[in-house]
Amino acid sequence: MACVLLNVSLVEFGKTIVAIQELHFLYFEDLAVGDAWVSPARTVTESDVVSFACLSGDFNAIHVDHEFAKETPFGRPIAHGLLGIAIASGLSSQTPRVATLAFLGIHQWSFLEPIFIGDTIHVLTTITAIEPRSRGRRGVVTWHRKLINQSGRMVQEGLTRTLVQSKQQAVKSVSVDS
Fold first, then answer.
1. 94-146: per-residue pLDDT in tens?
2. Entry pTM
C-alpha cells in the first residue's frame, strides 16, 4: 500500500480547521483472486429515492407514490434498482480503497429482491479475476458484488470490472511530477 493522499480542509464558523488524513490505496499487485471485503452499511431513505427520481427522471409510481405502491405486490414503495447499483458502487469504493483508473463496466447484474425505504444495506465484494495489462503498468480486476439487506438477504448481485493502477506506474507518476 504505497499510495498516500492527504485530505485537507474544513471550515467551521469562519475559522479554518485543518484535518489531515492519510488515505492508503491497494494497487493491482496487492490484489488476488479470492480476496474479499465487507463494506460499511447504509440505510436507504425516502430522500434517497426522491433524489434519485429527480436525478434520473424516473418518477415511476412504484418508487414515489405511497398510495399506488400499496396496491402492488410489494405493498409499499421500492427503491429504484439503479439506485441500488449506485449505492453498491459508493459503498464498494471505500472497501477496499483501490487505485482505480477507470470503471470498465457492469458485465452482469441481477435484481433479486426489492430494496425498501428503511432497508440497511451493505456490500460483500470478492475478486473473481485479475488480468495484467500494459506490461504490468495496470490491470483489469473483475469484482463480484453482493448487495445484502439487514435481514441477510441478497437483494442484488453482479460482476463489475475496473482498471487498476500498478505500483510500478504510481512510482513513475510520482517521479515524473516531482
1. 899 999 999 999 999 999 999 999 999 999 999 999 999 988 889 999 999 99
2. 0.81
* Domain boundaries defined on the chain: 28-177
Q: What is the mean pLDDT of residues 52-68?
A: 97
Render the chain in DSSP notation, one character per residue: ---EEEE--EEETTEEE---EEEE-B-GGG--TT-EEEPPPEE--HHHHHHHHHHH----HHHH-HHHHHTSTTSS-B--HHHHHHHHHHHHTTSS-B-EEEEEEEEEEEE-S--BTT-EEEEEEEEEEEEEEGGGTEEEEEEEEEEE-TTS-EEEEEEEEEEEE-HHHHHHHHHHH-
pLDDT mean across residues, the chain: 88
Match domain 28-177 to its CATH number in 3.40.50.12780, 3.10.129.10, 3.40.50.1110, 3.20.10.10. 3.10.129.10
